[in-house]
Amino acid sequence: MQLKDYARVLLKRGWIILVLAILTAGSAYVFSKLQTPIFKSTVTLSTVPSRPSDYGQTLAIKNLLRLYVQQMQSPMLTQQVIDQLQLDVTPQKFVSQIYFNADESNLTITLEARHPLPEVAAKMARTLAEVFVAYHNQQNLQIDQRDRVLVNIINATSPDLFSPRTLINTLAGAVLGALLGLVLIFVLEWLESDIIRTTEDLERVIGVTVLAAIPSIAERASTSTPRPRAQKLCPHCGNPI
């Protein structure tokens, strides 16, 4: 197909793209509004070796990051947080609302708490971080000071909306609807590609200009001059009846 053929198709059936884009965008908007808002709050912990110049100790901390995450997920620590915040959840449910990210490049652990109430999300992340720091400091008392790993809270963010992202969902729905409409248009054109309805369709198929066309029987009947109606004559006087 040439560029003008694509333009012809879009002008002919472009309304399909518009309708589907509006429908899918509207559906995405309604779906987003029906969802329960979820808020997130993050806390970042830093792990610092007692001997920063000791490469071996730094390498050991990278391996300890996963252990620290497992300790924060343990029922022993999570139950302390649940009791402090007086949450009506199990440790397993509490852990399912916390997302951890151990970054070996800068020796940090990020906790992200998600909850329908923003203030609860902030308290969950902050309290778990504080409980873990207190537990880790207690463990450090049993280790030689030269081999200790220091854990500190270095950042805590205010609660922010995590989902739904109504604007993003609506735009994504509009784009998806437009793509579906575009596909549907070309499917319809493919199904009708062997149907010739106009001289333009014929010229496009045979590749030459159509100079004339034979009218159909119906067209000839409608455009032909009506024949005069025969008149009856009186057999006695010869005048028309």
What report would you give on this structure?
With 241 residues, the protein is an alpha+beta fold. The chain folds into 2 domains: 3-34 and 165-191, no CATH class; 38-162, Alpha-Beta Plaits (2-Layer Sandwich). Helices cover 54% and strands 16% of the residues. The protein has 8 helices and 5 strands, in the order αβαααββαββααα. The chain has helices at residues 3-34, 55-72, 75-85, 91-96, 118-140, 166-191, 199-206, 217-223; strands spanning 38-49, 98-103, 108-115, 149-156, 160-163. α1 runs antiparallel to α6 and α3 crosses α5.
Low-confidence stretches: none
Report the principal-axis shape.
elongated
Q: Could you say what the CATH topology of the largest domain is called? A: Alpha-Beta Plaits
Write down the Rg: 39 Å
- H/E element order: HEHHHEEHEEHHH
The overall strand count is 5
Q: Structural class of the secondary elements?
A: alpha+beta
Let me know the average pLDDT. 83
Distance between the termini: 67 Å
The CATH superfamily of the largest domain turns out to be EIF_2_alpha
CATH class of the largest domain: Alpha Beta
Q: Multimeric state of these chains?
A: single chain
Helicity level = 40-55%
Number of domains: 2
* Biggest sheet features: 5 strands, antiparallel
What fraction of residues sit in β-strands? 15-25%
Brief digest:
With 241 residues, the chain is an alpha+beta fold. The protein has helices spanning 3-34, 55-72, 75-85, 91-96, 118-140, 166-191, 199-206, 217-223; strands at residues 38-49, 98-103, 108-115, 149-156, 160-163. Helix 1 (3-34) packs antiparallel against helix 6 and helix 3 crosses helix 5.
